[in-house]
Amino acid sequence: MNTRDTVEIGLNRFARQGYDLDEVSIVPSRRTRDVDDVSTAWQIDAFRFGIPLVTSPSDAVVSPATAIAIGSAGGLGVLNAEGLWTRYDEPAAQFRRLREAAGDGAPPVSLLQEIYGEPVKPDLITARVKEIRDAGVTTAVRVSPQHTLQYAPTVLAAGVDLLVIQGTIVSAEHVTSQGGALNLKEFIADLDVPVIVGGAANYQTALHLMRTGAAGVIVGVGADSFSTGDAVMGIRVPLASAIADAAAARREYLDETGGRYVHVIANGRIETSGAIARALACGADAVQLGEPLRIAAEAPGGGVWWDSVAAHPRLPRGGISPAVEPAGSLEQVLLGPAETSDGRTNLFGALRRTMAKTGYRDLKEFQRVDLVIGGRAG
Question: Domains of the chain (ranges plus CATH)?
């Protein structure tokens, strides 16, 4: 580690300096470009998307119907194989209970735990995947690392295009004295579908995950405005630095393999179009969004947000947010037009304009834009 990156926090104890996205600014320093000549397209394996969006696998924002709508809008909707849609034949009543409880002002974590205590039903996994596949969009499903060996065979047999293995922190090989553990490298080597894994918090972890054969690595721990992971576990990841670290790991792995490119997907408190642009400018290929999509009229949570880790049976890390009114359709949230100036609608239309203002025609070029550190964004 370069000593210029560290500060001494006490006698012979050093900590690395890290930066979050709101401490980084994009500097227009080239020619400008017509916005109609800018492309926000990206491709992972054989799958091409019009916008660099991978959704959080939260039930609050992704149902089979919204996964289809997001796919139609050019993004990748990720359904949670361990969510309400695979636990209940008709989850509408459970969504209603959560929305009503959210209106009381106190995050009802115990209610989340109760609702998510219903067992996952493999036949529902199959049915939900089929529903998305039949719509003709790219189908992606998330499983947690601890349940990958249990649920992934059902997910894969149902015919997904992409498998997402995602937890708060994921390593290439989990060490345990309690029986068998998931070895990602061995697991991925046996699959015919590309795998996205994460989250990674630093250079070494990102590089190790790339060496498993993953097609994409999620960087960040998914902390949002309602996350309590910092308070509960003491884990906080300055995302701008984490993305830059992962981009450096991507370059090393590219050289190491003679040209195999692994996509970096940024995840964690990316709430506005400006944050999306900064994440991509730091080196990400795409962003993972959850909470910002709750303002879409189609969001199954009805304006309420919760992350999957908020329902953890033993260590919940978050709660249910108060409900917000819809700010427009899902298409308006993603592609506009925006009717407010807060950076929360027309998320990817704004990205196109940022790229045009800085003179870059596609996302790979935009990763070379100049950046400065200049205090937190307003």
Answer: 20-373 (3.20.20.70)
